[in-house]
Amino acid sequence: MKTLKFITVTFLFAAFATVAMANSTVKNTLIRSTDDLRQVIKEKVESNYAEPFNLLYKKGVDKLEENVEIIFSITPENTISIMSVNSKNSIASDFVMQLLQKEKLEIDRLLVGQIYRINIKLSYRAS
């Protein structure tokens, strides 16, 4: 009986450790290219959709389909400094601005200080 408990506890510990390491790896992955940066920003926007009281929900938005152009740079402190957000919908622009402004990233020093232009498509539906 003690052996079974020990094996069960060991298995659960290993499972939790694996999940914890996987989560920290995703969040702390070093951004090494413009493509990586584009993917991280897209994931940041899409992950906000799943939050129960996300920024669009707080503004009373049930559905939003919009193309958004983001022009920004990365500061020496590794934060996003947004220069402009362009879209036909001001709520979409405000959403992206609030979500990304001053967001801290783990980014290669070679990418700091450059200006980036990224187009993303917002496809939000409240659940």
* CATH top level class name of the largest domain: Alpha Beta
CATH fold group of the largest domain: TolA/TonB C-terminal domain
Percent in strands: 15-25%
Radius of gyration using CA atoms only? 19 Å
Task: Note the gap between the termini.
Answer: 46 Å
The gross shape turns out to be flat
Task: Sketch the topology as an H/E string, one letter per element.
Answer: HHHEEHE
In quaternary terms, these chains amount to: single chain
Category from helices, strands and their pairing = alpha+beta
Number of strands: 3
CATH architecture of the largest domain: 2-Layer Sandwich
Give the overall average pLDDT. 82
Main sheet characteristics: 3 strands, antiparallel
Q: What is the number of independent domains?
A: 2
Low-pLDDT runs of 5+ residues are 15-26
Order the strands across the largest sheet as they lie in space: 2-1-3
Number of helices: 4
Percent helix among the residues? 40-55%
Salient structural properties:
TolA/TonB C-terminal domain; alpha+beta; 127 residues; 3 strands; three-stranded antiparallel β-sheet; flat
Protein model, in words:
The protein has a three-stranded antiparallel sheet, with helices on one face. It has four helices and three strands. About 9% of the residues have low confidence. By secondary structure, the protein is of the alpha+beta class. It has two domains: 29 residues; 95 residues, TolA/TonB C-terminal domain, CATH 3.30.2420.
